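Proteins fold reproducibly. Next comes an illustrative record:
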Amino acid sequence: MMTELGKHVVYQVYPKSFQDSNDDGIGDLPGLIQRLPYLANLGVTMIWLNPIFLSPQNDNGYDISDYTAIDPLFGTMADFEQLVREAENYQMGVMLDMVFNHTSIEHPWFQKALAGDVKYQDYYYLRPYRENGLEPTNWVSKFGGSAWSRFGETNRAYLHLYDQSQADLNWHNPAVRQELYAILNFWLAKGVRGFRFDVINVIGKAADLVDDDTDNGGKYLYTDTPIVQTYIQEMHAATFGHYSDVITVGELSSTTIEQTAAYTNPQNKALSMGFNFHHLKVDYAQGEKWTKVPYDFEALRQLWHGWSQGIMTANGWPAWFWNNHDQPRAVNRFIKTPKYYQTGAKMLAMMAHLNRGTPYIYMGEEIGMLDPNYQGMTDYVDVESQNAYRMLLAKGLTPSEAFAVVQSKARDNSRVPMQWDNSPYAGFSTQKPWLKNGDFDDINVAKDQESEDSLYQFYHQLIQLRQTHPVIADGDYTPRYDDVIEVIAFERRLGDVTLLVVNHFGETPVTLRLLDEVVQTGEYLIGNYPMQPLTNELVLRPYESFAIQY
């Protein structure tokens, strides 16, 4: 198994939506096994699975009731073991999604706590209601409403930073930490070679919880607290730190460059890499997700350069992505005109795959899947979207206004079933899927692979370049052409080799002046248009992207 972080390319599978093998409308592990050749041909090195553990599925598997059991929705432990073996035969590892901030309230630990077991009551944050009947603190759930719900028939409440079916674990309790480390070691023994840690930087709540004296809902009181690093280092030492071929990535909510670098600096023996989401919040009005505004290009450019340089300077390692199971499709967000969707998709791919860090591909991104054109709230099943719609109505938006916002930001946008072909239900299943299909007539794997200009092949080419060009895997990062409108450009340098990467986010042609050295010695590696002759002045076409090595 390859361990060089710069050569890894991770493909994220949302298991429920990838491939149904037993005609129940839900994707499963045998279905994924069937599609391993597709992923192997793409060239990815690791497959990240969203949670496949036993769960009531109130939050699509992020509410776990048994961390060491496969949910029958997805198959059996034997299916999982087969997946690991067959993936390994294709030189791919399997990465599991570990949700260690909280458990389902149906987890035996919580149920034992409800039954009065004091040992397990200390596994969670249980606090008494105040004398005036108010919740223990004024913290707000990230899914809306209070972050506290009543604990059974008692006068105590349990903390849930997310859905009320997801009770936050008390990491201050050493017994909790040992339980979680044992779970990791269980999966490591099964051959798992990657872990993605869900919202890992919010596990460091204080032992004594207090009100937030700002209007931030408690975020600053529980995000990136100093003890998080201590906990992750302890976890590293007790589990995956014993394996040289395991990679880990932390989902870092509302984090900073400094914190991401600290978590991922190899000297700190914590995580391999970290996700940040700041570049995907540039279309949030005043930082609010449930709004609908055009994205801010200058903010995107500054964030891209700032994070790339900042993490490099501090010896950390980033994970780069445009799409995941919690985000609407990037093409819809960043490419203004539909006729440029294919070209724009390639540009976005260039940005991530030629950057310093490990690139992630989300299921369907490699064929240009788009947000579904749902017509009403009944098409959406995600708990966060339903909560958001009600919240927007309560704020005074009309039903059509509220729906337009949800339509642009819903997590279900990325969760629609994979589009394999134009047969009924897109080749995902022979039965009606758990979530309504998107528009698969024009966008599907079969059609893309027939194209001379295949997006899948473009991704394949980018992945191969990363494997064969050390400057892409390991080079440094320097911003370029910040004075050119709607262009994000950077250079990667390793030794005496330099790679110039140019990405034009606009539809109006702009002129780029190339250095004599680039014109005279440059080698055109890849681009999303037919190559132009290299001259000192290049006119960039809509969404044009290219890489030149010199």
